[in-house]
Amino acid sequence: xxxxxxxxxxxxxxxxxxxxxxxxxxxxxxxxxxxxxxxxxxxxxxxxxxxxxxxxxxxxxxxxxxxxxxxxxxxxxxxxxxxxxxxxxxxxxxxxxxxxxxxxxxxxxxxxxxxxxxxxxxxxxxxxxxxxxxxxxxxxxxxxxxxxxxxxxxxxxxxxxxxxxxxxxxxxxxxxxxxxxxxxxxxxxxxxxxxxxxxxxxxxxxxxxxxxxxxxxxxxxxxxxxxxxxxxxxxxxxxxxxxxxxxxxxxxxxxxxxxxxxxxxxxxxxxxxxxxxxxxxxxxxxxxxxxxxxxxxxxxxxxxxxxxxxxxxxxxxxxxxxxxxxxxxxxxxxxxxxxxxxxxxxxxxxxxxxxxxxxxxxxxxxxxxxxxxxxxxxxxxxxxxxxxxxxxxxxxxxxxxxxxxxxxx
Length: 409
Prior knowledge:
Elements: H1 3-25, E1 27-33, H2 41-54, E2 58-64, H3 70-79, E3 86-90, H4 94-99, H5 107-110, E4 124-125, E5 128-129, E6 132-137, E7 140-144, H6 145-150, H7 162-173, E8 180-185, H8 192-202, H9 220-236, E9 237-240, H10 242-250, E10 254-259, H11 262-269, E11 276-279, E12 290-291, E13 293-299, H12 306-316, H13 319-329, H14 337-340, H15 343-346, H16 349-358, E14 361-362, H17 370-386, H18 393-407
Parallel strand pairs: 1-2, 1-3, 8-9, 8-10, 12-14
Antiparallel strand pairs: 3-13, 4-5, 6-13, 7-10, 7-11
Helix pairs in contact: 7-9, 8-9, 17-18
């Protein structure tokens, strides 16, 4: 009889110990991400909840970032060794953080999955993979069908090369005082260079030589590309920031603009009645090149939970979850190749245009100095479009010198 209290005490102690061990064994992942839109965030939350349900040993805490200050917060977190386990990065940032040693090399883990995803070039730095491509982004040509018809073009016309684009834009520009052939970006940071680089690449120009030793941004190919871009800007361009260009296009004032799939989302949500077409970017020959970027999921190199972090990334980027995300965000370009075959994408002709353009797009060099290089390129384009000099080659020559100076530090 005297042993019963002892047994009961032992059972209680054992239960408490098991509960303690169970609690301690649960892995908690910190996930930093940028999708805060009221239509999209619930999809992120639901995916995390489903992951936790399927993996009860793992809990995921979500921290929201903004594009206005997210980069700064990530820099501070890494510097203080308090970064998250998993974080979303814009593709332009991958090399910067990989070069500083903050991102885990996941090359071996992703090798079996490489054939199922687009976008690995965005995440590869010095032949090592530092992130998993999630949602990709490119730009295509939007055309106002009604203005094309008024300018004398038939209902199936698309400008398959630059001479035809220039001809069509100029003819639309002649339709009236409030009508413009081309939507041209003003000096808007992080936007202008993305509009010029498709012309640059389509002319065969390169930012660096293949071995990376020389900056080629002042080549004859680059000058020819900028001359064409400037001609569209000068002769028939409606000049505004990206939102302003899109407003004017939706109001029926512009014949052609370059934009991303966010414009398709806006047309759908605002129920805009506009007769428009999307087509692959023209070039010196059809099709031309476009700009490729994307959202990348990376693992903090200092994380002690890399295995759980990789499991979470694989779950988020699965075909099912990419389709779910794209439906919530009205996105057209998942990185998952199987996801792109879903009827949600194949039944929408505009989404098909974007997914075809992904295969015909270049991305900027995966370079730790890219943010500074981007700024140099943008300033050269600004000088050509809005400066006093009429010599198109000179801003590019100066840009080459500045980039070479930066890289030779």
